[in-house]
Amino acid sequence: MGFTAKDEIEGNFKFNSDRLQDLKAFDERKAGVKGLVDQGILKIPTLFHHPPDKFSKSTNSTNTQHIIPIIDLANIGKDPNTRQEIISKIKEASETWGFFQVVNHGIPINVLEDMKDGVIRFFEQDIEVKKEMYTRDQTRPLVYNSNFDLYSSPALNWRDTFICDFALNAPKLEDLPVVCRDILMEYGTRLMKLGTILFELLSEALGLRSNHLKDLDCCEGNILLGHYYPACPEPDLTMGTTKHSDGSFLTVLLQDHIGGLQVLYQEKWIDVPPVPEALVVNIGDLLQLITNDKFKSVEHRVLANDIGPRISVACFFKAGLRAHEKLYGPITELLSEDNPPRYRETTFADYVAYLCAKGLDGTSVLQHFKL
């Protein structure tokens, strides 16, 4: 990667001036960002340098008006009045913030903790074991690499990721890494149940019957991503995750205690503080598209930090295999003369292909599909 043994000892890697060569060298090491940190790097490579964001840095540490809603799902199936209150809160959060957190969601605390521990166990395996799983072949049961958009993004993010697709290529237990296979299967199963409940509530919040979004196959697919953000020696120069909105119908995120997730609200970055036992829920681009902008898919980012590793687990709900070529456009029941369609129809496959080609470049994918 253009560095010598002396550079390695000093923790200062000399990257080639040829960007593509540097990207290939980084990729071929198969060690990710964690590999750089493990070598004792003191200066981050220019591949990871991000330009300053035009929006103000946080935020809301002292501003109680700007707090992401926390919604308690307790008694949702027992008390009709409570259910209506919850639906009302979800509706307001989805229309204004595009984000909310849920507590009493039915997933036990020990499962949440084991899922975070499972991500740590995976990324802190021996490097030679991990290298065997490093790939950009999306058909593999588990895909481990650093920066899915390595060759298309303007600047790399300070994180490594594994991806497990529970829909297109549903994994068998034996196909998953021993260090986290059991918890991956359990957490994935529990998330599918929670996703069904959330889509019912979102359907009712739109004034539709509870099965409407489910019948559109919005929650048939589930991609689980385990993110590992190592401590960064120069966090002000890079990002954990670039500003983006999610290419899903809905995302459910488990984050650890470190924090760093921020939402863009009224042109200011607002912290999404970690809440013990809570899960973060956010509207994805495709839900904004089919609700014709009623629900908002909001841009968000993750700051790099000199503390780490930060762990998060994101579950993206998307179309399943049988709905991959289905056309998705604004829901007819939500349209009127005063509210005509704002987006053209697209298949989930075409949407994802465009997203992957574009990468996380800081611009909205939805603009491409506007009428």
What does this structure look like?
The protein is of the alpha+beta class and 371 residues long. It has a single domain (5-369), classed as B-lactam Antibiotic, Isopenicillin N Synthase, Chain (Jelly Rolls). It is 29% helix and 19% strand. The strands form 3 sheets. An 8-stranded mixed sheet has the order 1-2-10-7-12-5-4-3. Strands 6-11-8-9 form a 4-stranded antiparallel sheet, with no helix packed on it. β8 (261-265) and β9 (268-271) form a beta hairpin. The longest helix has 25 residues, at 181-205.
Give the total of beta strands.
14
pLDDT < 50 stretches: 1-16
Gross geometry: globular
What proportion of the residues is helical, as a percent range? 25-40%
GO molecular function: dioxygenase activity; metal ion binding
Cofactor: Fe cation
Domain Fe2OG dioxygenase: 220-320
Family: Belongs to the iron/ascorbate-dependent oxidoreductase family.
